[in-house]
Amino acid sequence: MLVLLFSIIVFHIASATLLFIATIDNAWWVGEGFFADVWRVCTNSSNCTEFTDSFDDYPTLQAVQATMILSTILCCMAFLIFLLQLFRLKQGERFVLTSIIQLMSCLCVMIGASIYTDRRQDLHSNNPEFYGAMMAEGSYGYSYILAWVAFAFTFVSGLMYLILRKRK
């Protein structure tokens, strides 16, 4: 049973780590000589421009920022609640609260990554003052991919907590 609990804890920490990296790192959209995320765009690895209110699709980016931050916070909260429930629940009780919070984190990641996926073309082609013409040519970066991997991890983790029963 200790091996099972240890693997669940490691899986949850991996989920939280993926969420932190996906939220913070600047590699959601990359190309030759530039990289962008939901916070800023950088060209030539040194010229970085933060997104501001003057950016045409700033509300869209704020939605992605908010959902990614919320998913990270919820994932960390779920882990702390799991640790509290681990020592406080009676045998046979389920980790329902942990599961619900983890599944809410999963939902937030899905919403944030889906909004970015849907609006990516508008974000990178309708704002030449931030991106320029070269930004339309590029591909999704590893932070974007990690966001979707974190979605899968948090979903599986939420389901594991839902069916997990505390045993000796």
Automatic annotation (TrEMBL):
GO terms for molecular function: protein kinase binding. It is found in: Apical cell membrane; Cytoplasm, Perinuclear region; Golgi apparatus membrane; Membrane raft. It comes from Castor canadensis (American beaver). Keywords: Cell membrane, Cytoplasm, Golgi apparatus, Membrane, Nucleus, Signal, Transmembrane, Transmembrane helix. Functions as a key regulator of cell membrane composition by regulating proteins surface expression. Also, plays a role in regulation of processes including cell migration, cell proliferation, cell contraction and cell adhesion. Its main location: membrane. This is Epithelial membrane protein 2. One of its GO terms (biological process) is regulation of cell-matrix adhesion. It comes from the Eukaryota. Belongs to the PMP-22/EMP/MP20 family. GO terms for cellular component: apical plasma membrane; Golgi membrane; membrane raft; nucleus; perinuclear region of cytoplasm. The keyword Signal applies. It is a multi-pass membrane protein. Residues 1-16 form the signal peptide. Interacts with PTK2; regulates PTK2 activation and localization. Interacts with ITGB3; regulates the levels of the heterodimer ITGA5-ITGB3 integrin surface expression. Interacts with P2RX7 (via C-terminus). Interacts with ITGB1; the interaction may be direct or indirect and ITGB1 has a heterodimer form. The chain crosses the membrane at residues 63-83, 95-116, 142-164.
